[in-house]
Structure formats: structure tokens, C-alpha cells
Amino acid sequence: MKTLFLLAFILFSGMLLSAQEQSPIPKISQQLTDYFSYNPQEKVFMMTDKVVYKPGETIWFQAFVSGPNNQLLHEENLELFVKLYDKTGKQVVQDIFKMKSGSCPGDLNIPDDLQKGSYFLVATTSVHNLPEEISCTPITINPQYSNQLVATAIVKDSISVSGQKNELELTLRNVSGEIQKNTTLRYQMKNGDQIIEKGKLKTDDKGKVIIPFTLPAKLNGEPFVCLLTDSKEEWTKQVFLPSDIDPILIRFYPEGGNLINGTPVKVGFTATNKWGVPVDVEGSVVNQEGNPITMVKSFTKGIGLFSMVPDGQQKYKLVLSGKTGKGQSFDLPASLPDGLALAVVKTDADFISANLTFADKKKHAIALTVTQGRILCWAADMNIDGMGRIKIPAETLPQGINLLSVFSDDGILLGERIVFVDKSQQMKIEVQAGKQSLKTSEKMNVKVRISDENGQPLSGSVSIAVSDKFWNDKNKSQIEKNLMIGSELDTPFSLISSAIQGRINNSALLDVFLITNRIKGFDWDKIRNFKSGATAEKNPENNSISGVVTDKAGNKINKAKISVVNNKNMQMTTTTTNGDGSFSFPSLNSANPDDFSVKATDQEGKRELNVTFNKNFESQVSEFIANYARQYSLLNADDIPDKTYVVNNPDLFQKIPKPVRAITNSYENQRKLLSTSTNILDVIKSIKAYRIMSNQIVFLGSENSLLHQGGALLVLDGQQMGTDISSISNISPSEVDHINVSTNPMDIQRYTGLNSVGVIEIFQKKAEFQSKATEKENANKYDGGYRIPNVFPADQVKQKSNTRTTLLWIPEQKVNETGQFEFTITGGKVISDFVIEVQGIAANGRIGSGKAEFQVVK
After folding, report:
1. Dist CA 578 CA 588 (whole Å)
2. What is the pLDDT of residue 617?
3. Average pLDDT, stretch 614-640?
4. Rg of the chain over CA atoms, in angstroms?
5. Using CA of residue 555, residue 557, residue 563, residue 568, what is the dihedral sign?
């Protein structure tokens, strides 16, 4: 064996080993530079004041935007798009902020009537083009009703088995944890929209109830859930019931990238159900004859590793034998007769050690690179005589996620492996609260010291949140884990973060996690094949109209003529397709391709062709959020306050308002009628009969005067239009999404106390936000279309009942070279444990967070 061991390493300047004049490294370095100059990488971390909010509150946030090396961006006046989505992927609130020096404070007003549930705060910059690149922070909207029920559910055997009797045990409490005895519960066992079983049961003296159910032998591709409601249907809860017949997804990741004949290889895998929830699996890898080769079991939910030696004569598959996915099988990637096996055997503070083995046992000239994002951190040329071990000096590499890649002498990628370099470089944040407890309106000084791993002071920028511990999440994301690992990799770090103990560079589990992963936005094939002249035009919202033209056989058509008509203003725009049958209208921006009509013909205009619109970025993000929301809802559990918290803070908990049902047809039937009707008044009459008196709508039986009869109040997208029907007579039914008609005094009084006849609420398709949210947004200030962040009110509102659960929010605290600063906290009226949270980035790029706790007492 002949090994050229690290004669030198290549710096970003492109210096080469003198003995390797034909090295592919200079070209690789140039391709890396060219690709990322057109495809810059940016990571966004969003720190919020808390993660649980009540309707009507404000989400306070600070965005840290960095490049791949975790340094804050230096460019000025960059845009940050911030949006709040519901679980269906629909936007609830949005705004555009202007960044400065890589950071951006901001706030979003939550509509007063936003429903309880999970929502997702999304932040993007103009360079983001894929949903996987976005920053997505789950938050919860919870009005915290005092008579709200909380159900703790336990499946008897953790996994429901098809064809057998299963049991779901429920314990019912109220929001303060008190057992709910003799309480009636209704339940439905559902598979998608299909109801498998339903019934009604009552809790016993311990607040418990056992629901027996039989899982069908076959599911329809949707999760199997139990839907619970109380007798008045004021409360609902969905419980996910994992089963032995849930579809399982297994993805295999051979270390180095490939299975090589006759060469030992570690194979990592991820295991989730169809809906993205990580699962434990066990089974065995078998050959074509069904003989077991090796046993397989996940290390922790969602990931695992096994070793094997493919012989080149067999095809292999993993067959699951445990309860989860029992009998389901998954084909392993085919093994290759030639190629390189790359295995990292050790990573420590001094070296990354890796074994290289060529299947043909021959001598090969290779090039090694270590990259972090767009940066070529280390490179070398060497010869490998069949097999050898390399040792890469860790001191030349930056801290964090790095990619080790091996190329042939003609630049062909042979193998790659993600490694984590931990140099123990960190920003330590020590938070020292002046007192352990505060009384209402009492003040306290807090000292903060920021230093590096050696205790030397650091300058930088941090954000500070002081909030009620109950309104936070113990799994709230920390900036160092997010930017150093979580934002870099495709598979979420949350799969294993709770399983890792101690230093992450000493964890074997972390190494398995790195094998079973990919770096976001990094693909050597795209980088090596990139040509700057063929770059796609970037758009800040990536909403340009684009698509592909094909004939009936599916062939992509070059030079096809495309004409697009805006359905709103009937303006026409034309273009032609390129060699791939693709077209784009960069000047036409729309979040909804349905706003346009398109026609395509061949270049002679004789043959009509098929057009498929590409999903724009906004549509992709909405779909991404909807899928993520389903996974999140299946994993997420309700947090329950203790009785003392509820007793101490009664103003935080109000009774659930009784539901007031508006008089309306089902929205589906309404929309069918709206699409065919020519008069909106006819649609309203189909909902509730009326007569017209003095050009006003008067519902039959609601007449209140012979001489001065009042009419129903007309409300269009939240705006009061009066009672005269002429204000709505010109509205086209096709532009209306749905209509609510109500004669309930509570509904009427939401708009006025002077009307006793009724209210007709008309919601148009183009209305994207609720009226109350719009009123709040109108109070915000803008500069050239950019939101000016509001200032967190320093003094609490002086009123008898103050329920502010965020006591202090400082989005941008500059720290000088002393590394120290102080601030003051004033105790509020909420009696609880509070968390002081400090997170940020030092001037030298070190990342860190720190916290302390105290109590507010009576």
C-alpha cells in the first residue's frame, strides 16, 4: 500500500501540491464559487418571546440571518418576509421587514378571533427557493378557558393491533388538573373521514374511562385517530392511535454514499410512518432466498444503523418483524461492482480519521475536499493503493457541520460523508438574577456576562425575553443547536436531540445521525454541472408564473407559443418555451396561478398543446406547512397548568363562550349556488327567507315597525355597509366565498347595538384576513412598504386585571468589548415561575444562549 499522507493542504487561495499538476481541485473550487455566487445560502433563526399565545396578543420576535459560516450577514436593507400560517397552510398574518447587519426585530398581531390550535411562524429571505430552507417556528394559540377539558390518553399496548380488541384509557381533568368524575364523553374512531366506531361513555370516580375498539384489517392511507368531544360539543380532542398496519417509510443511507461489492459498509436508516412521525422498528436484512444476513433495530425512534458486506450476487431487503410495520419490506440500494467505500472511524479535536477502500484493489489518484457551505476549507491530492487511511487535521476546519468528499483525478465524485467538528468554541452566557422572587410591581436588576470558552469577554448582539414559564415550551429551539446542526441538515435534529447526553462530539448516536442525513441545498451534481448563463431569475417571493409545455404523448416542446391572460384585467402576455419545454413570466407575480388563463400552441400556431403550471414558492410553502402541521399535531401534547397556577391567575382563564350558530347553508352547497347564481340577493334568500321593505332586507317574522322598519345590517369582509341593499347589489356571486346570516343578538352586537333585525356577513374570495386583524394592522407603521417594528411597552398597563405573560422583550441588546450589561425587570400581576432567556451571536461568530429563572409571588 502506498499512501501520500497529507503532504500539504489546500487553502481557499487554490494553492496546489506541486506534484499534482492535473489536480481537479482548482476546477472544483471554481465551480463551488460560481454555483454559490448565483445560489447564496442564508439561514434564519427566529427567537420569540414565548411559544404559547392568546388570541389578540402580539408575537415579538428577533430574526438572526447568517451565511453558511454562521456569521451575521453584512449587507444592509435586505428583506425578511414573515408570515403566520394555520395548520392547513393558509396565511393568517404577514408583513415584510427590513434587516440591518444580519438581524431584524419585529412583531405580528394575532387576530382576536383566531381559533385555538397550532400555527407556524415562517421567515424567509429573497434567496430562499425551497420550502426546506425556510425558518419554521411552531407556536400555539390557546385562549385558556377555565372549563376546558384535558384528556390524557394511553393505548394499552402502545401499538394497536388489527383484528384484535384494543383499549384506549383516558383520564379526564379540567384545566387546573382536577379529576372530572361522572362526565359524559362522546368518541369516534376514525380513519380519515371514515367512522369505524362511535359511542358515548362516562368517566368513573377517578376520572378514567376505557374505550374498547377493534382496528380494521386495512386502513385507507390516513391516520387512525380517536376524536373526543364533551356532551355539549364545546371541547374536542384528537388522539393519534399508532397501529401495526400503519404504512412505514424506510430510507437507507450507506456510509460514503454507496454499497460496494465485497466491502464492509455501515448503512444508516431513518424510519417514520407515512405521516412523518418517527417510529421504532426491528427486523432483519434478508437475501433473495429469504435468509437473514443481519439483524436490525433502531437506536432511538426514527434512526438506526447496521453493517453488512454485499457480495454482488444478491439483492437485499429489510423485512420488519416487530409490531410496528410487521411484514412490511424495503429494498436496499443495489451494490456496485466498482467504486470507493468511505468510512469515518474517528473524529476528535485533533484529526478526522477515515478509511478508503477501492473494490478493485488497484492504485488510484484521488482528490479530497472538506467544505462548509460554499467554503472550501481543506483539500489535498493523494494516491491510494487499493486501500488506505487518511487523517485530516481538525485545526484547519471550522466548527460545525463539514462535508468530506472524495473525487477521482478527473473530478468524478466517488464518495462523501458528513462530519461534525467540535472545537468547543462557544459563547457562554451567564445570567444572574438579582432575586429569586419578586412581588407585583417590584423591580429587580439582572446581570449578564458573555464570554468565550476560555472565559474571555465577547462583544456581539443578543436578544432577551422574560416570560411566564407555562407559556413556553421545554423543547423551544436554541440558537446554537439550530444554526450549528438543525438548519444544516435535511432530517430534523429533533429526532435525536433528547437522546444525546453530554458533549455531542462524543456521541455515537450523533455519528449515526450524520450518516443518515444530507446537507440542505448542497448537491455536487448540481454544483459540477452548473452553468452561470443558464441561471433562473430569482424573485423575492418566487411567485412568477412558469410551467412546462408538452404534447399529448408527454414530450416537452421547444419554441411553443405561450399566451397568458390575467383574468382580472384581461391583459395578455406572450412568450415561448426553451429547449426543455419550460416557460416563465418573471414580470407576472401571483400567489395563485388560477388568476391566469393560459394557452399554448406549436410555433406555427396550428397544434394546441398541454400546459402544466409550476407550483410557485408560496404554494410550495403552504403545502410544506400543511404536511408539517399534520406531523406536529400527531406528536404534540397539551400542557396542563397546575391548580395553584389557575387559582393565582383567574383572569387568565375565562369560560368557554357558548357557540352561536349562524343561520347558513353548508358552505359547500353555498359555493355551488354562488357559482351558478346571477344575483347575490337570491342566494341570501335561499339561506333565510326575507322581504324587501324600504330597500332593506327584513326577515319574515322579524318586522318591528309599520312606519320605521329597520333592515338587516350588511357586512362585507368585516366592513359595515349599512342596511340599504344597493351597497351589495353590484357584487357578483362568483366573487363571494360564503355568507353568514344571523338573527342572534350576540352576533348583531359584534357590529352594533342599534339593530334588532339581523346581520348578513358576506365574505369575498379576495378577502385574506379577518377584519379585526386588518384593524390591528392598520395601526402599524410602514416605511416604503416595510413594517416599522413596534416597541415593546416598557410599563405594564395600569389596570385591575393585567394578564401580560411577557414581562420584558429586548430584541437587540448590543454588547461591548467588556461582555457585560444589565437590565431591570418589574414584577407583573401574573403569579408564576418566569424564565429569563438570552440568545445571540458574538462578533466573532460564536453562538450561544443562557437562562435563569425566578418567581413572581403575591
Report:
1. 18
2. 81
3. 83
4. 31
5. positive
- C-alpha span between 499 and 511 (Å, rounded): 13
Give the separation between CA 275 and CA 34, rounded to whole angstroms: 38
Cell numbers standing for residue 97 = 421587514
- Collapsing DSSP to helix, strand or coil, 648 comes out as helix
Q: State the CB neighbour count (10 A cutoff) for residue 96.
A: 17
CATH 3.90.1150 fits 667-768, yes or no: no
- Checking if the pLDDT of 675 tops 90, the result is no
The string of DSSP letters for 186-240 reads EEEEEETTEEEEEEEEE--TTSEEEEEEEB-S---SS-EEEEEEETTS--EEEEE
Q: Cβ contacts of residue 171 below 8 Å, gap of 6+?
A: 151, 152, 179, 206, 207, 208
At 646, give phi and psi (nearest 5°).
Answer: -65, -45
Q: Rounded mean pLDDT of 542-563? A: 80
Supply 756's cell numbers.
Answer: 334588532
What pLDDT digit, counting tens, does each position of 463-511 carry? 999 999 999 876 788 898 888 888 889 888 877 777 775 555 557 888 8
Select from 416, 396, 394 the least CA-distant residue to 347.
394
Q: Judge whether residue 17 has pLDDT over 70.
A: no
Residue 794: pLDDT above 60?
yes
**Residue 769 has what pLDDT?**
43
Across residues 657-661, what is the average pLDDT? 59
What is the tens place of the pLDDT at every residue in 352-406? 999 999 999 999 999 999 999 889 999 999 999 999 999 999 888 998 899 999 9
Considering the segment(s) 150-234 as one domain, its CATH architecture is Sandwich (2.60)
State residue 674's pLDDT score. 87
Q: Is 527 helix (H, G, I), strand (E, B) or coil?
A: helix
Determine the pLDDT at residue 541. Answer: 43
Q: Cα(593)–Cα(187) distance, rounded to whole angstroms? A: 41
Strands 719-722 and 736-742: unpaired
State the amino acid at position 202 in one-letter form: K
pLDDT of residue 614: 74
Using DSSP, state whether 797 is helix, strand or coil.
Answer: coil
- E strand or H helix at 630, and its extent? helix 617-635
d(CA 595, CA 605): 24
Nearest to 734 by CA among 786, 680, 788, 698: 680
**Residue 669 predicted with pLDDT over 90:** no
Give the span between the Cα atoms of 848 and 842, in whole angstroms: 8
List residues bridging with 145 in a β-sheet: 654
CA distances from 586 to 568, 583, 613 (A): 18, 10, 14
A 10 A CB-CB count for 659 gives 8
| 3-class DSSP assignment, residue 70 | coil
Helix locations, 329-405, DSSP H:
none
Whether the Cβ atoms of residue 232 and residue 241 lie closer than 8 Å to each other? no
Alpha carbon distances (Å) from 636 to 117, 140, 596, 632, 639: 11, 10, 39, 6, 9
